[in-house]
Amino acid sequence: xxxxxxxxxxxxxxxxxxxxxxxxxxxxxxxxxxxxxxxxxxxxxxxxxxxxxxxxxxxxxxxxxxxxxxxxxxxxxxxxxxxxxxxxxxxxxxxxxxxxxxxxxxxxxxxxxxxxxxxxxxxxxxxxxxxxxxxxxxxxxxxxxxxxxxxxxxxxxxxxxxxxxxxxxxxxxxxxxxxxxxxxxxxxxxxxxxxxxxxxxxxxxxxxxxxxxxxxxxxxxxxxxxxxxxxxxxxxxxxxxxxxxxxxxxxxxxxxxxxxxxxxxxxxxxxxxxxxxxxxxxxxxxxxxxxxxxxxxxxxxxxxxxxxxxxxxxxxxxxxxxxxxxxxxxxxxxxxxxxxxxxxxxxxxxxxxxxxxxxxxxxxxxxxxxxxxxxxxxxxxxxxxxxxxxxxxxxxxxxxxxxxxxxxxxxxxxxxxxxxxxxxxxxxxxxxxxxxxxxxxxxxxxxxxxxxxxxxxxxxxxxxxxxxxxxxxxxxxxxxxxxxxxxxxxxxxxxxxxxxxxxxxxxxxxxxxxxxxxxxxxxxxxxxxxxxxxxxxxxxxxxxxxxxxxxxxxxxxxxxxxxxxxxxxxxxxxxxxxxxxxxxxxxxxxxxxxxxxxxxxxx
Length: 603
What we know:
The protein is of the alpha/beta class. The protein has 2 domains: 24-418, no CATH class; 428-601, Transcription Regulator spoIIAA (2-Layer Sandwich), CATH 3.30.750. The chain has 27 helices and 8 strands. The longest helix is centred in the middle third of the chain and has 33 residues, at 255-287. The chain starts with 8 loop residues before the first helix and ends in a 10-residue tail after the last helix. The model is unreliable at 1-5 and 588-603 (pLDDT under 50). It is found in: Membrane. Residues 448-562 form the STAS domain. InterPro entries: SLC26A/SulP_dom, SLC26A/SulP_fam, STAS_dom, STAS_dom_sf. The chain crosses the membrane at residues 32-52, 59-81, 107-128, 140-166, 186-204, 216-241, 261-280, 334-351, 357-374, 394-421.
């Protein structure tokens, strides 16, 4: 007996021990390069996201350090990087600002309490194995969501790329018309800096992918900005950052706090998990990594729980940082740890240097990242293979663009579930018949043409799928289409070999329809039941109702019994003659009187 290897208990508790064994000199080099790029990319992001959340800028950076390390160590994805995100920042602001004034001490304290509650909920989801729920987020949903988010990221950088100040809160589709109307306001220096960074980033990715091209692009952009005169010439720079680390502080937690923030924490927990796992899956499809969604839930939960004690607000998987991490060549979660460590060093040692980093150069690099996130290969594959899946992908993409980001995944999931329910509620019912090939071997095949030979007295159909309450109506309709008022069939054999599940409604359907077909002069028989289906039919009393003479072990036994009980007078003039038993049902002189074209049908 072959023993199936099991994951040691200490690996389940400390999952980082598994990938630490794969770290080598080569992977370490790639991870360090990716970490440097990720640390620099998150600088303006952290500041911007903190402002959206109603928090001082340093809290956005803290949230890009502690949660990133914890999620990398205790999560499942090799490339996902956690940190502040646009959607969660907006949700936090909308929920907490109704109780406290943004940027106030009370507001900041409530945010940390909310983060702790969010992490506890996420951890519980992982512990009780709710990660399988993410399986309902189909591949098409992930592709559509990723493409939509990539477009939003690209448009969000359009202002920084051109130097134009777009109206606050403007939608992505409003930016192009506004840009055309205000084309004279485009900053030539900003655009040149952005194009320089974009071109160098693309060039290094194609010609020298192992070199941190994004870092080179940002350095080149900084030099170009200095050449134009820097801030004095009107070029926006990241600016000097506060050089201090997050302090340890226990978030306030009480019954009233839970009452006040509980519903918000649940919403953010679900949104954060959906974002993180969707991003992880989108990257895993390209890297071909196997994900453990329950472990990812645990990692996200722990990252927010621990982060709440170190001045961090709710974090999740970051599209941009994960994209940068993957395209920069990261191989293990160590890249996320390095990115957090480098960001810490930047805060402590070289924070003033970041004052010279131009925002347009960041925009150019982020444009490249956004483009790389669009999975054109899988989009083409979905378009070719399934119109339904393409519809799911397209609706998810449009929902991402035109609805709040937190609703886009839900729209895709609901649509996927509706299509799944619709598909499962229509089990495949096909007529089959017996046919002999050129070698003289007979086999059962589907009746695909009107001229196919079928026994006029015995109708054979095969059901494939699950028989449950949502499918019974469609099954009844399909069965009655096969045996209509003009049918000469007196026996209906239903093959259930491919039926894997049946509920009480399905059992009642067979009992009821047996009587309905009897009124039409047709007897219903069942065969090839798998043990689970047989057990359910037995417990529901269906087998007893049918009787042992109407239940058969397989098709061959069923045909032998049914062919022996047909009206032999009808067999005399029958030209189908598809069964071996047909010869014994027909007198010898009748066979000789048949047209020679029908003789090959006798098997």
